[in-house]
Design brief:
The chain has 256 residues and is an alpha/beta fold. The chain has a single domain (12-194, 221-249), classed as NAD(P)-binding Rossmann-like Domain (Rossmann fold, 3-Layer(aba) Sandwich). The chain contains 8 helices and 7 strands; from the N terminus they run βαβαβαβαβαβαααβ. The protein has helices at 21-32, 44-56, 71-85, 108-135, 157-177, 198-201, 204-212, 226-233; strands at residues 12-16, 36-40, 61-63, 90-93, 139-144, 182-189, 244-247. A 7-stranded parallel beta sheet has the order 3-2-1-4-5-6-7, with helices on both faces. Helix 5 (157-177) links the parallel strand 5 (139-144) and strand 6 (182-189). Helix 1 packs across helix 8, helix 3 (71-85) runs parallel beside helix 4 (108-135) and helix 4 (108-135) packs parallel to helix 5. The chain is globular.
């Protein structure tokens, strides 16, 4: 059998920010691929809705509310998850936010909130889960960065710095943990329709600006991230680590 498997049967996957948007789509997709998904975010009601949707489709999910900006909460909830599951095979660091200020207007509070939510959380989750993966038989960590971590956008310098940090963190964790069978990768989306971007994409002029630099001439649908994420998290990506796959409709290749 030459074809690799995208199936995740018997695998256990933690997904942060799973209550809506990209995280919800990945939770539904990874469940359909056979994984037992562990749903984390602050809003328990959203997580319960996703759990119910997964179960209605015959899948299995658990809700573990968590504020990823709290390192203590990460340590406590990850310990609780391991008491229940004993082994985690996949971690998706998806939780994130943005405050789109001009550089000259950025406040220290904005810096802290964005950096804590987007990149400190991803590192602390990776450390809490990745060190346990090394003691078991390895695993896969996937962080959701952004094209903003690779090219200059008008969506905020702090957000861009946080997403660029995720890309470099991916490389160094992959470098340190490869020998113990832990693969570490990222995906870098361009615009996808989610609650985070809905108000932006409803602005016709802003949408036209996006389409003007997007070779595929459309924004992405969250379901289109499931395949790339599955590839990097499953046996199909077994020899891929330290990489960032931009899922961007061609936006990052743009020149003139
Ligand atoms: N949509 C897009 O176009 C793009 C998105 N991205 C990235 O994708 C990821 C998901 O974005 P998207 O789905 O659009 O965003 P949404 O705002 O739709 O969802 C964000 C998710 O993260 C969770 N979250 C936010 N803060 C915290 C926190 N402190 N602790 C735990 N969970 C938290 C939210 O739940 P709750 O508020 O209940 O905690 C929610 O489930 C982000 O990292 C974003 O930067 C990257 C490129 C493009
Ligand atoms: C492509 C970016 O990541 C996108 O831009 C924004 O303003 C949102 O924060 C999205 O993340």
């Amino acid at each position: 059998m030459l074809l690799p498997s995208f199936r995740l049967d018997g695998k256990k996957a933690i997904i942060t920010g799973a209550g809506r948007g990209i995280g919800r789509a990945l939770a539904l997709g990874f469940s359909e691929a056979g994984a037992e998904v562990i749903l984390c975010s602050r809003t328990k009601s959203e997580l319960e809705q996703v759990k119910a949707e997964i179960e209605s489709r015959g899948g299995s999910a658990a809700v573990f509310p968590m504020d990823v900006t709290s390192t203590e909460e990460i340590k406590q909830v990850v310990a609780e998850i391991y008491q229940t599951y004993h082994q985690i095979d996949i971690l998706i660091n998806n939780a994130g936010m943005n405050i789109r200020s001009k550089a000259s207007d950025v406040t220290e509070d904005e810096w802290v909130r964005i950096m804590d939510t987007n990149v400190k959380s991803a590192f602390m989750m990776s450390q809490a889960v990745g060190t346990r993966m090394q003691e078991n038989n390895g695993g896969s960590i996937l962080s959701v960065s952004s094209v903003a971590g690779h090219v200059a956008l008008k969506t905020g310098v702090v957000y861009a710095a946080s997403k660029a940090a995720m890309i470099q963190m991916t490389k160094v964790l992959a470098y340190e943990w490869g020998s113990s069978g832990v693969r570490v990768n990222s995906i870098g989306p361009w615009y996808f329709e989610t609650p985070l971007t809905k108000h932006l994409l409803e602005d016709e002029n802003y949408l036209n600006d996006i389409l003007a630099v997007t070779p595929l001439k459309r924004v992405g649908q969250v379901e289109e991230l499931i395949g790339p994420a599955l590839f990097l998290s499953s046996e199909a990506g077994s020899y891929v680590t330290g990489q960032t796959l931009f899922v961007d409709g061609g936006m990052t290749i743009n020149g003139f």
